[in-house]
Structure formats: C-alpha cells, structure tokens
Amino acid sequence: MAFESGLSAVVLLVGRLLFGGLLVYQGLNHFAATDTMAGYAEAKGVPAARFGVVASGVMLVLGGVGIVLGVYPVIAAGMLAVFFVLVTPFMHDFWAVPEEQQQDELIHFMKNVELLGTALLVFVLAGEPWGYALNIGL
Fold it and tell me: pTM for this one?
C-alpha cells in the first residue's frame, strides 16, 4: 500500500505529527524535569535513574522526530517499541503499588501499551515511502 499521495498521505501525516510530536514533547520533558523524574525512577528501584531518565528522553525525542520527518522510521519505531517494552512494567507496576496508587499506575500502564501498539504499527508501515516525509533510511 502506498502512502505517497492523496488522503492516506494526509491522514498519515496527521497521525505522525500527533504520535511523534507528543513523544518529542514527552522526551523534552525528561530534560526539563530530570531531577524530579530521576527521583521518581529511584523510588521505583531503577538503577542509574538519572542516566535512565536522560537516555529515555533521547529515545523519545529521536524516535518522535524520526516518525514526524520520516527519517529512519523503522529504527525510530523500533527504538520506541523497545522503550515502551522496557519502561512500562518497571515504571507503571500497578500490581505492586499501594491500593491508592493502583488506578493511576494502571492508567499509565495502559497508555504505554497503547503507544507500544502504535509504535509497532508504524514499524510495519515504515517500509513504504510516506507522503510529506523525507523518506530517509527506508
């Protein structure tokens, strides 16, 4: 299926902007709130929490930019999928927190699973040229 022109190219662009753009925003937040996020990660038992926050911020920004621009989209989507597989059960372990925190952690867990699903869809779709994209590294 080609995504180079027509309505499908426009819809794919909007989806890329929403998905990738929000991931870039989240990644930049890792740099703006590194200390706060590192403290939370430490509380969750993450080793080298500060490094993990910065590294995950880099993954989110690079993955998001890659999807928005169509630059190495398979690598970008794969990197995001790895991020969500590793981070989700570690940071949003709703089964292991006190009852008053379970609902919040479950919501974040489910959101990350949804984003993982989207990253996997993009991973599959990234083999085709995209309209309104640089299409580098296909």
Answer: 0.93
Domain count, the chain: 1
Residue 134 lies in a domain: no
CA 65/CA 70 separation, integer angstroms: 8
Domain membership of residue 118 (yes or no) is yes
Closest of 76, 52, 57, 54 to residue 125, by C-alpha: 76
Q: What is the tens place of the pLDDT at every residue in 85-107?
A: 999 999 999 999 999 999 999 99
* Rg of the chain (C-alpha set): 16
What gap in Å lies between CA 109 and CA 135, rounded to an integer?
Answer: 32
For 136, which DSSP code?
Answer: B
What is the spatial distance between Cα 62 and Cα 22, in angstroms, rounded to a whole number?
12
Q: Is residue 137 part of a domain?
A: no
pLDDT tens profile 24-45 = 999 999 999 999 999 999 999 9
> Which domain range does residue 115 map to?
6-125
